[in-house]
Amino acid sequence: MVERVSLGRLSTAAISPADRFDYWEHSISSQLQPVHIQPVNPRATDFRAEFVKVDAHGTMIAGGVLDPVRSEVTRAHAHEQDASTLSLGLQTSRSLLVDARGERHQFSNQTLLVQSDDEPTVHTHSVRAPMILMTVRTAELSLPMTVLRQLMFRPLPLNPALRALLAGAAQRSRTALDAVGFSAYLHGIAELVLRTALGQQPDHSGTAAVRRQQARDVIRARIADPSLTTATVADELGLSVRRLQQIFEGEASIAQQIRDARIDRARGCCRTRWPRTSRSPLSPAAAGSVTTRTSPDRFAGPPGWRRGISAVDADGFCNSRRKTCPGRGA
Questions:
Q1: How far lies 139's CA from each of 10, 82, 144, 149, 182, in Å?
Q2: Which residue intervals of the chain are DSSP H helices?
Q3: pLDDT tens readout for residues 75-113
Q4: What residues contact 22, with CB distance under 8 A and at least 6 apart?
């Protein structure tokens, strides 16, 4: 049996004005990506938005229009993602400001926004304007994630032919098409757009910013490896340990980033296996009762917390074969 594309509509038209922000936040978070939404104008009493969304075998393309709004992918939400998808966004007016990686950029109808789901970002739409959003699987692209990250969160010039290609894909998706074939079509468009954008960018492969991002990618990919060290990361990048440390001078060291990532993984393990309840050692009272010297806000946890760093298996879950587990005590 042929699998067809799935067509869906998101609209605030039938929702009470008082509930439209909550409705839109829930709809976008459950069907696109987790976001926190706020009005650009705090005095706004209404919010209107409408999107037509098409899902096709792991890919998605959506087109629509929305009122001025501020949407944020928080650091907590980003940490829960795995960069398995890549989003390409096209605005139809000079109306979008994007804050990410400590920088702010403005996007227009002549520039493309590329982003993954595992980095925090803030989008501010200053006027009501149409937009197109396409999501594809990173595993289906020929470009490695290290290269893709060079393109993210920066305005990428998009020529008229490619803009028309994206707009046409959004229109053609609303018909009864084969899902597998249309998914391949969207991946092909993404490949063409990204490679064209990459060809227009200067070579940054040796810059410190790219090397730092490559190092973070290695840490993210190999965090379950107990032998992961600064030397391991340096070897993966073809650098000396000294050179890698120089690149991160003034920032958290590689060793600190590995440690932080393992603790974040352990925290996620505890939340998955032992949700916060009145009896749970991760209750607010217990979690706030113990701190560490390094960073009380970040590493607060119950006795036995540090054992969690070594009790996380390759899938990110507590190792049930151990007699102890993070947050559970002996």
A1: 28, 12, 9, 14, 17
A2: 20-31, 75-79, 145-151, 160-172, 179-199, 208-221, 230-237, 241-247, 254-273, 284-287, 296-299
A3: 888 888 888 899 999 987 777 999 999 899 999 888 999
A4: none
Residue 318 lies in a domain: yes
DSSP H/E element including 83: none
Count how many Cα atoms sit within 13 Å of the Cα of residue 85 in the half-sphere of its side chain: 17
Domain count, the chain: 3
Cβ pair 62, 32 in contact under 8 A = yes
Q: Which domain holds residue 42?
A: 6-199
* Phi, psi (degrees; rounded to nearest 5) at 276: -70, 120
| Residues 210 and 106 grouped into a single domain | no
Verify that 173 and 60 share a domain, yes or no: yes
- 67 with 163, same domain? yes
pLDDT tens digits, residue range 37-50? 888 887 878 889 99
Mean pLDDT split into 10-residue runs, the chain, 330 residues: 80 91 88 83 85 89 91 88 90 84 90 92 91 92 85 91 88 78 92 86 62 86 90 86 87 91 80 50 39 46 50 44 42
With 0.70 as the threshold, say if the pTM is over it: no
Locate all alpha helices (DSSP H) within 102-207, ordered by sequence: 145-151, 160-172, 179-199
**Cα–Cα distances in Å, from 180 out to 12, 56, 322?**
30, 7, 43
- CA proximity to 261, closest of 221, 212, 295, 301: 221
- Beta carbons of 144 and 182 less than 8 angstroms apart: no
**Residues 148 and 194: beta-carbon distance below 8 Å:** yes
